[in-house]
Amino acid sequence: MYAAADFLAIVPAHWDEHRFAEPFETGERMTHRALELLAIGGGPANLALAIAIEELAPDDLSERSLVIERNETVAWQRGMLLPEAQSQVSFLKDLVTLRNPRSKFSFVNYLHSIGRLNEFINMGNFWPYRVEMSDYHQWVANSLEKVRLECARECQEIEPRRDSDGTLTGWVTHLADGSTIGSRYLVVGAGRDPYIPPVFAGLPDDRIIHSTQYLPRIAGLPGDVPYRVVVIGGAQSAAEMFDAVGNDLPGCHRTLVMRSIGLKTYENSKFTNELYFPSAVDDFFDAPPDAREQILREMHISNYSGLAASTLDDLYKQVYLDRMTGKGKLRIETMTDIASAREEGGEVVLELADRRTGTVEELRCDLVLLGTGFVREMPTMVRDLAASLGLEKIEVTRDYRLKIPGQADAACYLQGVNEATHGIGDSLLSMLAARGSDIAHDILADRAGRAVTLTSTSVTAN
């Protein structure tokens, strides 16, 4: 009788090369590589998975796993790494601690390794600065010993591969540099697409900055020009940009436009925060549709359409001082829709529709900053993959595996896009350690099951 570990060893280390591999071309760049696991996106979700693979999986899987990131470096919320912005999640909800508090990849060990642990403890704060959380993620990427991570590798297309019987045997991922990667297991963790409201579609790109591009784009503008800046949105990213642009473009006049009645804080009681526990995922996944809908509706303000209390207080002080001094450089428009947006005579012209009175007012500006969040539907990459598989509906199992009809000897997992089935915390740091474990164990179980099948087939053949 074989043990599970014996089954894992039976899976051939080069299982996929006969299906995918063409000989590597001579020269510096390979045209094709054959791996067992490819994770697309070098953000915290796939970093947590990489840690789980290193700590839980045998070498023949971990050493044949690769994470690719399209940017030149690993960073967390790179467009909004503002100097004083803090994470809204405890440092203990890092990439690994909730799964393995003894792990060398913990945030605490990161602080210890760079010599800042005492100072962090002395600060007496559970919430690290966003820039140090981002640096922690890069440190993890640099500290991986078995799973590889490569930057400047952009995915352009994912092609399912099937054998002559129609069985799904794996994936071929096409990169922007013309090379391809074959894998049995695929994990998509590249994040959601930024949401650009249709009303702004006609504006030139140099007039619009989404929050995901705030820092690099704003850095390219002259700081001594008295820009008229309009920020769209009533949540954390919009408020942070409204605050930051006053320092980044010191002479600017700022207007904040939102549809809500006013800025409000997140709902973050300790009771509702229990719905961000990893253990809450099982209850949510097993709940009927009406219960899921109620939970998401009532928890919305705990993650969306709100601000951290400290951000709101600081912003109100700025508005108060502007009114007190009569400078008139800050303006906030509530219950307001953008009826239209156009460029005219070197200016952006916005038509503001007051939802209370129905009146429409023109507002002329130079720059529009969008704190409009992300598209709620599945990312383009996932929808394109689903289309290539002929899926009418995108669904995942409890272990985040994409449901694919028919016979399959390969699997795909989706990270951070399953709020409808896995709960409000699916896209947040709170779930990463546990989710990495769920996916890693599902892959290990699949490999063990395949080893059993191979062994049984071999015995029968003999």
UniProtKB/TrEMBL annotation:
Keywords: FAD, Flavoprotein, Monooxygenase, NADP, Oxidoreductase. It holds the Pfam family Lys_Orn_oxgnase. GO terms for biological process: intracellular iron ion homeostasis. The keyword Ribosomal protein does not apply. SUPFAM superfamilies: FAD/NAD(P)-binding domain. Its EC number is 1.14.13.59. Transmembrane segments: none annotated. It catalyses: L-lysine + NADPH + O2 = N(6)-hydroxy-L-lysine + NADP(+) + H2O. The keyword Flavoprotein applies. GO terms for molecular function: L-lysine 6-monooxygenase (NADPH) activity. It is an enzyme of class 1 (oxidoreductase). Its cofactor is FAD. Pathway: Siderophore biosynthesis. InterPro entries: FAD/NAD-bd_sf (IPR036188), Lys/Orn_oxygenase (IPR025700). Belongs to the lysine N(6)-hydroxylase/L-ornithine N(5)-oxygenase family. This is L-lysine N6-monooxygenase MbtG.
